[in-house]
Design brief:
Structural class of chain B: alpha+beta
Oligomer: heterodimer
Radius of gyration of chain B: 21 Å
Number of helices of chain A: 7
Shape of chain A: elongated
CATH architecture of the largest domain in chain B: 2-Layer Sandwich
Shape of chain B: globular
Strand content of chain A: 5-15%
Radius of gyration of chain A: 23 Å
Helix content of chain A: 55-70%
Strand content of chain B: 15-25%
Distance between the termini of chain A: 51 Å
Order of helices and strands of chain A: EEHHHHHHH
Number of domains of chain B: 2
Largest interface: A-B, 39 and 44 residues
Number of strands of chain A: 2
Structural class of chain A: mainly alpha
Helix content of chain B: 40-55%
């Protein structure tokens, strides 16, 4: 199939977008898709899922369109990033890892951040808590060394080693 | 079965304004935590099999818990709830309109006796833990919601990622998965035309303002829902502190404007309140929006002591009682909009007259 825009180069990028509830499919070559990316952003309807879809699609338009062309899917639920862009929703917990790179700019745009600093679940997050403890101890270790409290530093180092055993 | 009481009476905990802090302005406070089960597709992708599995896992975790707060809850799955009953739960703010509109039998609700605690099952996320209390009590809401979260987490494997936090179907909720909100009654700020300027400031602080039924709903009766926009990169404590601080400022502002109205335009204010009360207690046909707007004027009159013998609780109760599903439940029949408008006028007259 050739690109719908220039009708010359082969279509390697396949996009599905929703406009006012109407599904629209586009088959483009990379060059035309890159131009089209910005244009579609303007047309998007501003309800939240669409807006979010546009955020996701917008990143896609400028940077990662090739990824969609390759139709990478989540190994757990089978969603690809075009599905996610369209609905504004991920498919399952594993999508976050599968599309980590694509999500990063979106999360920054929506939240101004991409790193969680809140609550950690006690059970599933045990490792996370240990890691956080280790980080904390390392800071204390540096401080102890800087203050030449070597006995204390040795104690802290031992605790860090203990905790690191838990992780492995 | 206490769920029957919840469906048949008007009362829910958040209506109990009398002893709640700042309840002359803050109608209610809410915390909602979004949680998902690891590996099971998010609800919008669930089919019958995975949907039933998700429900079964949540049900089992609930039943295993020894905490009295969870033991006291009751499970209502959607095959037990008629569309009318679901709408009743929406009008009481116990489930979302989207949840009510869906039909899958593996959707449901865990709810306690007074409706302060509600867990939507298989809504946009597998679990939406909600605590809803009267007045400005965001922190107390969080304590209860967190306790439920901790209890359920003992027996459920929640989807969590070290750097992204709690994983949710929509990336706008990822991180804490927490939405903290307050429902504010701001007639004086609205009347004096200050509302828009204030809400623009709020938006810059990472908060959003919505109508009575949350996302996509219009503002009626001078009731505004303010909630946090950001869920990632801020701790629960920060979010709650921000919301509480902003709310306290809005409460101050509203009080200042109310006292200015009362001092500088006493006659106009009393006239407005009196007319609203007159219409509410004498009208024969009353639309929902008209009722909510007039009830707002009466509420202001009650708060400022212009009307003396009406309790704020009665006004909160009326907000639910005059909603379409409550009217139909009360009449025991389906009603067209006109019949509802007539019934609504009757219910209000009975309550306030």
């Amino acid at each position: 199939m050739n690109c719908e825009e220039c009708k010359q180069r082969p279509a390697t990028v396949h996009l599905t977008q929703m406009y006012n509830g109407q599904k629209k499919e586009l088959h483009l070559c990379e060059q035309c898709a890159a131009q089209k990316g910005a244009y579609m952003f303007d047309l998007a309807k501003f309800s939240l899922p669409n807006l979010l879809g546009t955020f996701l699609g917008g990143n896609l338009g400028q940077q990662h369109m090739q990824a969609v062309g390759q139709a990478r899917t989540c190994p757990n639920c089978g969603m690809n990033f075009a599905d996610i862009s369209q609905t504004g929703k991920l498919g399952c917990s594993e999508c976050y890892a599968a599309f980590d790179g694509e999500l990063e700019p979106t999360l920054r745009r929506v939240h101004g951040n991409s790193q969680h600093i809140g609550k950690v679940p006690a059970r599933g997050g045990e490792k996370v808590m240990v890691k956080k403890q280790i980080e904390e101890l390392k800071t204390r270790l540096q401080k102890a060394v800087a203050e030449e409290q070597y006995e204390k530093a040795a104690e802290i180092r031992d605790s860090i080693k203990e905790l690191e055993k838990k992780l492995s | 079965m206490h769920a029957d009481d919840l469906l048949n009476s008007n009362y829910v905990k958040w209506m109990l304004a009398e002893e709640a802090p700042a309840s002359d302005i803050v109608i209610s406070s809410r915390i909602r935590l979004a949680r998902n089960l690891n590996l099971i597709p998010f609800p919008h992708l669930l089919d019958q099999k995975s949907g039933e599995r998700s429900l079964a896992e949540i049900q089992a975790a609930w039943q295993k818990s020894q905490d009295p707060i969870l033991r006291e809850m009751e499970l209502l799955t959607f095959d037990q709830l008629s569309p009318l009953d679901r709408q009743i739960l929406v009008e009481k703010h116990l489930i979302s309109p989207n949840h009510a509109a869906a039909n899958e039998h593996y959707r449901g609700l865990l709810v306690n006796r007074d409706g302060a605690l509600a867990i939507m099952i298989n809504e946009e996320d597998h679990l939406r833990i909600q605590c809803l209390l009267p007045g400005l009590q965001v922190e107390a809401c969080y304590e209860m919601a967190e306790r439920i979260d901790d209890q359920l987490e003992k027996n459920l494997n929640f989807a969590f990622d070290e750097s992204r936090g709690y994983l949710t179907a929509c990336p706008t909720n990822v991180g804490t998965g927490m939405r903290a909100s307050v429902m504010l009654h701001l007639p004086a700020i609205t009347l004096t035309g200050l509302a828009n300027a204030i809400f623009q400031n709020i938006a810059q602080l990472g908060m959003t303002v919505r109508g009575l039924y949350g996302e996509g709903s219009e503002v009626v009766g001078n009731l505004y829902q303010v909630s946090n926009q950001v869920t990632l990169g801020q701790s629960e404590e920060d979010i709650i502190n921000n919301l509480t601080t902003i709310t306290a400022q809005m409460v101050d502002q509203e009080r200042i404007m109310r006292s200015r109205l009362a001092n500088e335009t006493r006659f106009q204010l009393e006239d407005r309140v009196g007319r609203a009360f007159g219409i509410l207690t004498n009208a024969r046909i009353m639309t929902s929006n008209e009722a909510l707007n007039l009830l707002s004027d009466v509420r202001l009159g009650v708060d400022l002591g212009i009307i003396k013998d009406i309790r704020p609780f009665a006004l909160n109760e009326l907000m639910a009682a005059v909603s379409p599903a409550h009217l139909q439940k009360r009449s025991g029949q389906e009603m067209d909009p006109f019949q509802r408008d007539v019934k609504r006028a009757e219910v209000i007259k009975e309550k306030l007259g």
